[in-house]
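Cross-posted from the bioinformatics board.
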Amino acid sequence: MTWATQYRDLVSMQLRSMRNELWFAAMIQVVLSLGLVIGFGFLIPDVSETTALFLVTGTATQAFVTIGLVMLPQLLAQAKEAGRIEYFLTLPISREAYLLALVTVVALMALPAVAFTIVLGAWHYDLSFTFEPAFIAVALLAVFSLAGVGVAMAVYSPHQQVTNALTQLIIFYVLFFAPVLLPKEQLPELLQFTSNFAPPTYAADGVRATLTDLPGTHLARSLWAMTGFAAGSLALSSVAMRRRG
Amino acid sequence: MAMNNEPLLDIRNLEKRYRSGTLANAGISLALQPGEVFGLLGPNGAGKTTLVRQVLGMLRPTSGSIALNGIDVVADPGYARRNIGFLPQGQFDLEALQVGELIEFSARLRGVHPKDARRTADRLVERLDLGAFRKTSMHTASGGVRRLAGFAAAIAAPVNLLVLDEPTNDVDPIRRQLLWTTVAELGAEGATVLLVTHNLAEAERFIDRLAIIDGGRIVREGTPAGLRTIVTERLRLEMAMAGEVAPHPALTAEHGNPGCFLFDQRDLAAVSAWLAVLRESGLLTDFRIGPPTLDDIYAAAVMPPRELEAVS
């Protein structure tokens, strides 16, 4: 059985086993996008074009974060607790194919929400977005880096509760303390420094670099950083799944 | 392939000490012959699951060796995964995946062609009377249906060794019989089965040999008939009492079964006389004396004789 056949069957199996969560995740994303894109506008009296661009691209990034760094680790931690992972670990399949299948399903959940956010934002704030083909690479790497870190978090967490607590913290961090919905310069120096080690920073930067003309973006740095996070976290997860106690 | 007389699974001096210091397996040696249905029994915490996880290549032994078909699976755990079908002990919850899908995908992921995998799923669904649950999601299925679906998934592709951990937990009596018959058929077709179970009385008919494990060691090993000799010199007494009375000194309490005792056949006259006195005084409402059950072998092997408490 080839690696590709295993990967195809695992994606199909994951999609079927998550058929109830898929629409639920999509619905949550729509509500989140509505809340962030439109609701944040109520907090800010006069939303400038720059602010609106940050809000919309930040919300699009938030969709990757919610699925990759929140929902996926929670689902995986639950799977670990329920013994589902053990079933897969006893099959003659590649661990990497299993992990990539999970990340692929996450990508399929996140991408419609990203598209919805951009369209909603463009309509609500009357914005025009440029589209660079590099956005496809940014989107893929955003999924792989965020979901990769999410998987590693779940695999290394001792308990489901620890994973769930971490994911709650991540939501708050990304919403208020990271350069995702707002420019880096608006954050205190300490948070500017810590954001260098957070994958959502680079996902947001990449999204802005390929969809807007906003100044101060670094596409190449964002692509390299996301590649590093994706490779590092998936390698760490793979090591954990091969560990035999 | 295994040569004649060469064990299919050969475990030698297996020791597993966890980082916490717990010694879960303390020098276990077992040899399973091709086509054998081998029962592994033991109380909770005896080291059964640790042993199984090492055979499956999920845990690394501290010392000792495990060979499957002569291949060292400690060095090559992938070989174990390719050649062992496994039903884990826990609840088999695979979310919204349907029962039929689980069986089909388990076969596909073990290298069976998709068309053949579909046919295998059809056959096993019918064989285990799961037709009504084929489209039931694993998450909403009852515990018994999940176990059966997991069992079907474990046997969905040809393997050298089948490891079944408590396969009949939560399964209803009719399907339980179907499952045991299927295990027996697999054995007759030449599959080697390692069966971890508490339900000795039920599994007895299908087991060729068994080992009793306690405290990380094999304490008894042999055929069910051979192991019966441990308790053949004894009889089993069941009593129903209307009051409290000190038990006869010849009786040994059966673990976990209040009102059940074992005693030496030579003490039959003394015990009978004692029962007659109790009967006359109205304290004894009912009693039955018979041969020991196979569960008594298990109890005799793993339980030290207990000090008798008052019978009530």
